[in-house]
Amino acid sequence: MLINIGQLLTLRAAGSGPRRGPDLKQLGIIEGGAVLCLGGKVVSVGTTKDALRDPWLKKNRKKVVEIDCEGQVVLPGFVDSHTHPAFISPRLVDFEKRISGATYEEIAAAGGGIRSSVEGVRKAGKSLLAERVLDALHEMAEQGTTTVEAKSGYGLNAESELKSLEAIREAAARWPGTVVSTLLGAHVVPKDFQGKSGQYVKEVCEKMIPQAAKRKLAQFVDVFTDRGAFSAEDTERIFECAAKHGLGVRAHVCQLSETVLWPLLRFHPASFDHMDHVNEDDIPQLAKRDTIATLVPGANYFLGLEKFPPARKLIDAGVPVALATDYNPGSSPTASMPFVLSLACTHMKMSPAEAVAAATLNGAWALRLQERKGSIEPGKDADLAVFETRDYREIAYWFASNHCAFTVLNGTMVASGGSGEVE
Ligand code: NIG
Ligand code: FE
Q1: Nearest bound ligand to CA 83?
Q2: Which of 133, 252, 400, 405 is placed for a possible disulfide with 171 were both Cys, Cβ 3.0 to 4.6 Å?
Q3: What angle do CA 311, 312, 316 make, to 5 degrees?
Q4: Which ligand is nearest to the CA of 188?
């Protein structure tokens, strides 16, 4: 039981569906809050005063581990709904080339980019890859993240994509938080299929998706639907196959150029991610749906772009927006959700309250885990982040330093600073 919480951000229900428009900033704050968790679930939420008067608690107080939060802030653990942790090496050559003026696409065309991460993954053993994923999960938890979506996407053949998903599963089994896996076999066309993208799409549809589904290695299928990667037609073929195998779908869209979204809407994607170059005419359509626009400003920051995703336009039009790190070696090497919140506020003009809801409840919606994750309510999973601040706005205010004191992941407490599980 956590007591004496200065601000308890419950994110409790404000209507049904993902948060949109003015509802995005409703945090359901309880001052002087308390949360009781049992068996990995939240069982009661309220004020410390009421909790201590509760007859059940009075009788059982000795059995309950009580943590005095001394006025700190508690919120639902972050749901990082877009990450690519299954890679081996940082891409330092790309980094330096960009500093010298080359763009992300120029670097990719010259042999860098996503394709240059493939050799390392193909050569690596599954356990090394799992170690890398686990390191990222630990780093994420240290900064308040309790649920992570993890994509494959640097193997680019059936063997190495499935190995990446197995590595994600192995890492997830050794981490107390929740991991949702996504097959991103259609990240780019690999070198060995250059000029034969149709054949590669066939590999994805006939080998990767059926095996990933059969072995329950992925819940979602993702496609990079953009200039230099896959077309809307390729994506439709892949989504059709995913649906046939019972997998959910999501897509990287409008990162480098405008992606035509309407042919994809019939598949009810859980999310459209990036959205930098979204066509304004698509915005009213998206406002009517539950496809979450997942914004990943870490990529804009790291690629040194002047423009950031149009969060205000999307939110003000009623599109449900989430925030995620996009943790990956090429465009966003950060595991920090607090830094993403900071970017959302300073560069996208989201308010700190909107950023918190986008990083928790709407992140849960983006993974279709809204029944279990994203808010602190009785019956939901015991996923909490405790920040050593007096005011929740400080989470987005301080940047490049970690103010997370500890997290609770499915009921397991983990201290920040790498000291592992707390008794
Ligand atoms: O989300 N855009 C495609 N995928 C990643 C980048 C991956 C990489 O460069 O390694 C992204 O930005
Ligand atoms: Fe991505």
Answers
A1: 2
A2: 133
A3: 120
A4: 1
In CATH terms, 2-76+375-415 corresponds, of 3.40.50.720, 3.90.1150.10, 2.30.40.10, 3.40.50.300, to: 2.30.40.10
Q: Which residue has the tokens 């920051």?
A: 301
Read off φ and ψ for residue 210, nearest 5 degrees.
-60, -40
DSSP letter for 381, please: B
Provide the strand spans (E) within 23-104: 29-38, 41-47, 67-68, 73-76, 78-83
CA atoms of 151 and 101, how far apart (whole Å): 29
SS3 15: coil
Q: Is the pLDDT of residue 422 over 70?
A: no
For residues 4 and 198, give the distance between their C-alpha atoms in angstroms, rounded to a whole number: 59
CB 81 less than 6 A from any atom of ligand 1: no
Task: From the CA of 87, give the closest atom in ligand 1.
Answer: 10
CA of 260 relative to ligand 2 center, distance in Å: 18
Query: 147 with 407: CB under 8 angstroms?
Result: no
Average pLDDT rounded to a whole number, residues 335-360: 98
- Residue whose tokens read 């419950």: 10
Tell how far the Cα of 154 is from the centroid of ligand 1, in angstroms: 10
Residue 75 has pLDDT above 50, yes or no: yes
Predicted TM-score (pTM) of this structure: 0.97
- Cα–chain center distance at 56: 37
* CA–centroid distance, residue 58 to ligand 2 (Å): 49
Looking at all shown ligands, the one closest to residue 259's CA atom is 1
Residue 330 Cβ < 6 Å to ligand 1: yes
Q: Does domain 78-366 have CATH number 3.20.20.140?
A: yes
State the distance from the centre of ligand 2 to the C-alpha of 332, rounded, in angstroms.
8
- Residue in the structure block whose two tokens are 């059709």: 240
Q: What does the domain layout of the chain look like in residue ranges? A: 2-76+375-415, 78-366
Q: Which of 159, 184, 180, 153 is nearest to 169 (CA)?
A: 180
